[in-house]
């Protein structure tokens, strides 16, 4: 099948509403014969008639009705996407404020660069979000969207692209017996206090970042609670406990820290990041950035050029 022409789809959609070639042509600002030509081309691509024509009436075939029911929502979604992109492009002098937890990795950096290329008049501000308040900055409109650790189960927020799947790593005091290990098992988390997160974050989210039990059900001793990653690492260095973090954060913060060891943990679910936006009040810039991030992630999939 050749390249699909959007004009053919538009001609079919208008004709399906008007059921009259002349009126369809008037709406599309083309001749009646051009509408007929576009329809014939579309039918040739599909391989069967979509419309029945007689001297008295125009009607959809059964296939035409089925095709219409699938095409209309897809076309409306495509049109809405284009309008959102145009709205974002028109936002001259606007600002996109992105919050993030952990580190700005390569995927996120590429998405920001793509957004800036598409919306050169929009300034991008990036701000770190406290571990203890992953969703507050979005709700308070301090940022337009935020990259946070999953899970997210908030009714007023929607999760956009999900990315950066990584194994988890345990930050340990350098003098801990496990510090020299190549890896530890999730069950061995029960052997040392685990640094948690302050109460500003929902319970389910805090438990996901600092579980209370091992996969087999052994209780994990609770260590001190912190607001930020830096606080957690400082307490780790002071031998007050250990802290779970993703592999990229461990690599970023591991350089030059002789007082902390970072050891991979086997048997825990992988860490994931997600882009979070307000469900009903997201800005055009934030939605445009979500699309840029999604495209960046798609392009980085294995097998793509």
Q: Could you walk me through the main structural features you see in this protein, from its secondary elements to its overall organization?
A:
- This protein starts with 5 loop residues before the first helix and ends in a 6-residue tail after the last helix.
- It is of the alpha/beta class and 305 residues long.
- The protein folds into 3 domains: 6-89, Arc Repressor Mutant, subunit A, CATH 1.10.10.10; 95-164 and 272-299, D-Maltodextrin-Binding Protein, domain 2 (3-Layer(aba) Sandwich), CATH 3.40.190; 168-269, Periplasmic binding protein-like II (D-Maltodextrin-Binding Protein, domain 2, 3-Layer(aba) Sandwich).
- 40% of the residues lie in helices and 23% in strands.
- A 5-stranded mixed β-sheet has the order 4-3-5-13-6. Strands 8-12-7-11 form a 4-stranded mixed β-sheet. A two-stranded antiparallel ribbon has the order 1-2.
- The mean pLDDT is 88.
- Strand 9 (194-197), helix 7 and strand 10 (222-226) form a beta-alpha-beta unit.
- The longest helix has 28 residues, at 62-89.
